[in-house]
Amino acid sequence: MKEVYTINDLTSRALLDAGADKPARLAVIGHPVAHSASPKLHQAALNAAGINVRYVRIDIEAGQVGECFKRMRALGFIGCNVTVPHKLEAMEFCEVDPAAARLGAVNTISFGETATRGFNTDGPGFESAIQDDFNLLLNTRNVAILGAGGGAGKAITTQCCHAGARKLLLVNRTREKLQPLIDHLKNLKPDMEIIGITFDDPSLAAHCLGCDLIVNTSSVGLKPGDPSILPKTCLRKEHLVYDTIYQPPVTPLLAAANALGCRTANGLSMLIHQGALAFQRWYPGSEPLAVMRAAMAHLIAG
Ligand code: ATR
Q1: 301: pLDDT confidence band, cut at 50, 70 and 90?
Q2: The CATH number of the domain covering residues in 123-268
Q3: 3.40.50.10860, 2.30.40.10, 3.40.50.150, 2.60.40.10: CATH of 5-120
Q4: What residue ranges line ligand 1, CB within 6 angstroms?
């Protein structure tokens, strides 16, 4: 059994399942993929439900997604998760669910009898996480998205738009990435108030203070020594602050917010919810959330 498989292992069951007690029929494809938490989440849910399936990691290069799906179908895979950098390329090789098309990426594939279908559970996973952590519905809220210009930013801003948030404040280091995102969101919701600024805009604090929910979708906070993406002057204790990063469990942004007395949560809840929603695509009617939470308990902030 390998920790990480490649496309070359997708040629025969004998190769793929050598030394394993269960057939690999679910996977996460990405590059790199060795760090992915998805196998832990999904294997726990499979085991708890008594399903005789192994969930594996497959590292594939850009340009190999179509061939990978073809081989997975031939080997009888049920589906897969798609992670960075393949979430766009995957859209070319499946029937894309309309909600995933709006989000502009797929992260969950289901190999049906006749069709390969693609879904996105990142956006809905974020919405469920916010409900769970803060008991908050996104509608009627003013939401600030920090680092809105990346892939996570697009999924989360689109979800906020779809869920009927009142106002979106998009903050990004690179100004050029703001307008295409604003155009995309305006196209979905022409009446929505959307403000796009960079972190060095003098009105940053005033705009942030006018929001209810602050969400970091950037990678700032992942690396040791990273600063808080937002200065303290942009935070007030009534803010709900969500960081999509879950390792470290308390990023500098969350530490600053905690010090002010804000309610905070990290991206572990989004990871778990997007995983549970993907699992339910493969196994409709299943309830994997509690088992997935337990499987990730070791990552909860200490
Ligand atoms: P992707 O999600 O598309 O892979 P990424 O490179 O991980 O993108 O970046 C995600 C977000 O983090 C982007 O909004 C990025 O800002 P830029 O659009 O200006 O690149 C943001 N980001 C990364 N490092 C940053 C930093 N040091 N300061 C501020 N924002 C940063």
Answers
A1: low
A2: 3.40.50.720
A3: 3.40.50.10860
A4: 147, 149-153, 172-174, 177, 218-220
